[in-house]
Amino acid sequence: MNDKFFLRLVWIVTAVVLTVVIALKLVPAPTTKPSFIYLLPHIIGGINATCSVLLIVSLIFIRKGNIQAHKITNIITFILSAIFLVFYILFHLYEKDTKFGDLDHNGILSVAELAAVGSTRYVYFFILATHIILAVVVLPLILLSFYRGLNMQVALHKKIVRWSYPVWLYVAVTGVVVYLMISPYYNF
């Protein structure tokens, strides 16, 4: 596979994923839901936590010069991230947005509910906004990093990883934080 073809593929995959995620906001949820759908947020949170740890382990491996362990760890992390994406899409197909602070799960934030969460709501939205924006940005960077790394284009790999690694780690860690902050308000 040549570089030009792969770069096109990266942008196509990124555009498709972005389009699907945006479409999830526009498509109404099906009326019947599979029973397992309510397990997905917990699995997604666990995947993000696992990816966070694996990304740190991967960095330790490469710093120690263990390229094979670094490569295997990153492949596992990449696969888990792909599974996360499938589960995220599946969950948000059936369940639309959960409102932060909605303790009675009626979809409306009362004055009392807003007062109960206070400024924590703004912290949540800041973390969520940066998480979403950087998740979009990091996808092509991860794909390029993988391509360069698997093809042993070490100089190019290092150049891209300088940006992709901290962003990917931030997205994984904030995914866990978002999950922990929103989970009390799930309507199930």
UniProtKB/TrEMBL annotation:
Highest taxon listed in the record's lineage: Bacteria
Keywords on this record? Membrane, Transmembrane, Transmembrane helix
Pfam families referenced in this protein's UniProt entry, alphabetically: DUF420
Transmembrane feature ranges: 5-24, 36-62, 74-94, 122-146, 167-186
What is the official name of this protein in its record?
DUF420 domain-containing protein
